[in-house]
Design goal:
Radius of gyration: 25 Å
Strand content: 15-25%
Number of domains: 3
Distance between the termini: 62 Å
Helix content: 40-55%
CATH class of the largest domain: Alpha Beta
Number of helices: 13
CATH architecture of the largest domain: 3-Layer(aba) Sandwich
Mean pLDDT: 88
CATH topology of the largest domain: Rossmann fold
Amino acid sequence: MAVTLKDIAERAGVTTATVSMVINNKPNISEATKKRVLAIASELNYYPNIIARGLATKRSNAIGVIVPNLASGFIMRIMEGIKNTLRNASYTVILFDTIGQGMDEFKLFQRVVYEGRVDGVIVITASSTEEELSLFKKEKIPCVLVAKQSNNLDSIYVNNKTGSYDAVKYLINKGHQNIALITINRRNLNIEERIEGYKDALKEKGLPFTQDLIFEVTSDSITDGVHIANKILSRGQEGGKRPTAVFSPVGDMTAIGMIMEFKKRGMKVPDDIAVVGYDDVPAAVVVEPALTTVRQPKLEMGDMAINLIIDKIEKRDETIVQRELPAKFIIRESA
């Protein structure tokens, strides 16, 4: 049988109202009483009835987290930051991913909003337009965007342009002039900003931006990296000018796939071809040679996002918060 507030109150020698105030972290309760009630609640394995509490407070005490792909190392690290911080909060997370749910992002937004299961939403690496994202504001659902900047919603993001610029400038300073660029075959504002950084670095050094050096993937994956590595090597065999370096702003997994295939084909990285990734996922230090990359502060982004969304839910403050975090260029062995 489930433990009730009355059970705790009888053991603690206080009223059920006092127990409720302690459980809900209300003021005007002495520290001694608070400690006694919480100790007994823990001893009895008490869990608040979330549904009952929701009926009383008109809250679900749940936060929705919407992601495009749970398999992404970048997203997994942000989720780790969310999870670490959530341990100290009385909220649960309901996870939605567009691939797993088999629907496009905006339809998933509509489902999350109109089902009424969550008090607020964190959206990681959204590809939706400002108009589509305005659904949350229109329906008065607190929303924090992670890895995307918005003028209309709270956002936590990295300066992608500067991170990319630093990586390409480094390669140019190492003597590389033919630097391949990996892009993705779908709309992604983060990657578009990174491409701008690539172009800025070339322009500063008087190097042309040419379509011949652009290679497109469908996702940030080892499989796509292997495929692109073969395309790059085929270009050299066909008499074209093979790149001496590759920059993968789509992510580290593509870069890792390229390193694996280059090595398999007898190439030395970075002597024959240098490779630079983006994100600094855990696998970046495992691959040989270790991957030179641009680090995004993923744990911090997750921590900030969960703190901000809880603050928005509880205070209902409509002031838009924008927090830009710096990217950091990490030099290892692949470039």
